């Protein structure tokens, strides 16, 4: 085994599958294929803290054989429908009729994490949550040779406005289009209500920063920070999304950050650059750029790369001096010095700090062995095209290739 694997000798017993690049052209349905239309409508109701959601197959419902929803019984309730609906535990199997096909339900917007803080919240003045919460995960069986198209319409209380990651039609509806999914389903962060919004186009990406008013969110500071750093991110990831939504709010929202497709949440109290030189905002932007999921015992790779490249982006963009950049690496090394193994299910804190040091060493060896032709940048770009989970074995194979 190549010498770089000595850096990973503490990882044992990890089984992984080969990772293949995403085949965007072949996996995404051709536009010429006949389509059935999914029309999602959501009515936001602050008083009971719910959204009433209706899914209608507005064209060719006879092409859809069934839809299986994976629901949360504590959040999804009051199902109404046409056609046939069969409940199997936490799964709902819907067989739509050949015409007038629809299913409707209520979903509780509030979502609380284990520490008691919220990652979904609604008040009389605003709401912030994931669009994923509106529609449960779903599997669908439909006629061969067809594809889905989807639109989203959101009905808001008087005086409210909304920010989403989706482009908007002149009708006010949103185009929901995800080439990586067979069935288009709303995803990503949403914020709505009495909100303040700042927009800027940076290097081809339409950036929106939105938050409820009077929450202490520094929208223009964030835009200015992104004008300085996002071009470096885009050069690192040539397929960086062409639309980016950043949402924020103060307590009682979770005091951290969370990424989602083409969007991220950042608590209002989180600094754009921490005292140790790291950046939660850039860390989450790396997650947005990579859209990566970790396989068994590979979370240190995904989280380590996000932290490693948060420092790289700050340094390469000139936001962080070389001295502060080196100090940041020293602090991370000190934090992770007592970690004996990265072989864990979830990477956090000192484990991620330890992973940053390992990745930096791997980058140095790639540069040396390839005589400067390759670096860890080439590995991470390949990982960003992976269709499926990132595995330790697949990561090792990519690193090995870059050393030749």
Automatic annotation (TrEMBL):
This is Peptidase M61 catalytic domain-containing protein. It comes from Abyssibacter profundi.
């Amino acid at each position: 085994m190549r010498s770089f694997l000595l850096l990973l000798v503490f990882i044992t017993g990890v089984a992984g599958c080969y990772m293949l690049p995403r085949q965007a052209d072949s996996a995404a349905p051709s536009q010429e294929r006949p389509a059935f239309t999914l029309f999602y409508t959501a009515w936001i109701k602050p008083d009971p803290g719910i959204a009433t959601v209706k899914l209608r197959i507005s064209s060719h419902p006879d092409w859809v054989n069934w839809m299986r929803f994976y629901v949360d019984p504590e959040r999804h309730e009051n199902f109404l429908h046409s056609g046939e609906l069969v409940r199997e535990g936490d799964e709902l199997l819907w067989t739509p009729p050949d015409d007038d096909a629809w299913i409707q339900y209520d979903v509780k917007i509030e979502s609380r994490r284990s520490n008691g803080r919220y990652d979904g919240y609604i008040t009389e003045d605003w709401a912030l949550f994931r669009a994923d919460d509106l529609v449960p995960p779903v599997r669908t069986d439909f006629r061969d040779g067809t594809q889905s198209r989807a639109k989203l319409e959101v009905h808001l209380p008087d005086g409210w406005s909304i920010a989403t990651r989706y482009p908007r039609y002149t009708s006010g509806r949103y185009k929901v289009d995800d080439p990586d999914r067979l069935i288009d389903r709303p995803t990503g962060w949403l914020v709505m209500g009495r909100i303040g919004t700042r927009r800027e186009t940076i290097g081809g990406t339409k950036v929106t920063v939105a938050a409820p008013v009077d929450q202490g969110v520094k929208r223009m500071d964030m835009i200015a920070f992104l004008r300085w750093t996002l071009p470096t991110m885009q050069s690192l990831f040539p397929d960086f999304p062409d639309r980016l939504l950043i949402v924020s709010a103060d307590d009682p929202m979770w005091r951290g950050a969370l990424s989602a497709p083409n969007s991220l949440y950042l608590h209002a109290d989180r600094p754009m650059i921490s005292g140790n030189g790291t950046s939660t905002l850039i860390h989450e932007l790396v997650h947005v750029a990579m859209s990566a999921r970790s396989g068994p015992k590979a979370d240190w790779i995904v989280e380590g790369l996000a932290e490693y490249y948060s420092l790289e982006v700050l340094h390469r963009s000139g936001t962080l001096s070389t001295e502060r950049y080196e100090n940041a690496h020293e602090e991370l090394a000190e934090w992770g010095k007592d970690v004996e193994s990265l072989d864990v299910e979830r990477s956090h804190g000192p484990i991620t700090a330890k992973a940053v040091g390992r990745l930096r060493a791997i980058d140095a060896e790639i540069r040396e062995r390839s005589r400067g032709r390759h670096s860890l940048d080439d590995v991470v770009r390949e990982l960003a095209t992976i269709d499926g989970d990132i595995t330790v074995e697949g990561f090792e194979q990519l690193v090995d290739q870059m050393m030749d």
